[in-house]
Amino acid sequence: MRIRIIDAFTERPFAGNPAAVCLLDSDSWPDEAWMRDVAKETNLPMTAFAYPLPQGADADWALRWFNPFIEENFCGHATLATAYALHSDRGTPGSVRFSTRSGILIAHTGEDGTVTLDFPAARLRAIPVPEGLGKALGAEPEAAVGTGTLRDALAIFGDEAVVRSLAPDFSALAEVTRRDDIRGVVATAAASDPSSGYDFVSRFFSPADGIPEDSVTGSAHTALAPYWAERLGRDELTGLQASARTGLVRVAVRGDRVHLTGRAVTVIDGELLDSFK
């Protein structure tokens, strides 16, 4: 069985966020324990499994995501990586609909090879800064924003440099997120230099789910996009996720939808032996 490791939200290898992609030659899911074992073996932020659906179905492919610890409900970078793999195989631009635990998600690959994800926008609301969050992050946010069913908390800072310099206590941060049923904490600030090529920065922490810091988090941008669009007065922006690998996400707010656009590159293309299935 073919397995690819694809770096998403980047156009150069060893940057962006890596995902393993397995396009299954079947009409149903394999054993879930096997998929979990594959995700543990790849030991990447996410491993995506997909199989083609019959004509007439609501979507073109069924898609699931696993990290080494849990099955994820929503993952942007592994969806982009899967769409990129499908585009690499068929060699033509076009759209693909994925049936997922978060509903039907659409990805469109353009003539230039960029992939645009059409995702529902998160529903934002101001919330009190969770108790202990500032101490766990190493700096006190100016404000916090809840994201509804996405279950992330945006921690708003007034200075890009503060976001970049955060050195969280991951054990303490995991306690905060478990206590308040938060999937991840998204530290974010406006770009300090308008000529930098990006409009806002972010970092994503989810230590309770085994991801101390994620490299580039597509799903988090479904909340970052509407938040910064309102703050900055523009509906098309570019976000820089300031992780060690870094990655750029172009975002566009379209009503209750968010378009996330990025590139990807395959760094490993190999075979997963069926004998271990």
Task: Kindly summarize this structure in a few lines.
This protein is of the alpha+beta class and 277 residues long. Helix content is 21%, strand content 39%.
Model description:
- The protein is of the alpha+beta class and 277 residues long.
- The chain folds into two domains: 133 residues, Diaminopimelate Epimerase, Chain A, domain 1; 131 residues, Diaminopimelate Epimerase, Chain A, domain 1 (Roll), CATH 3.10.310.
- Helices cover 21% and strands 39% of the residues.
- The protein is globular and about 50 Å long.
- The model has no long low-confidence stretch (mean pLDDT 96).
- The low-confidence runs, each spanning 5 or more residues with pLDDT under 50, are none
Measured as a percent range, the helix fraction is 10-25%
Please describe the biggest sheet, giving its number of strands, its sense, and whether it closes into a barrel.
18 strands, mixed
- Proportion in β-strands: 35-45%
| Shape by Cα distribution | globular
Total domains: 2
Which structural class best describes the helix and strand composition? alpha+beta
Kindly report how far apart the N and C termini lie. 10 Å
Strand tally: 18
CATH topology of the largest domain: Diaminopimelate Epimerase, Chain A, domain 1
Number of helices: 6
Classified by CATH, the class of the largest domain is: Alpha Beta
Order of helices and strands: EEHEEEHEEEEHEEHHEEEHEEEE
Corresponding CATH architecture of the largest domain: Roll
In terms of quaternary structure, what is this? Answer: single chain
- Write out the CATH superfamily name of the largest domain: Diaminopimelate Epimerase, Chain A, domain 1
Give average pLDDT, whole number: 96
Which radius of gyration do the C-alpha atoms yield? 18 Å
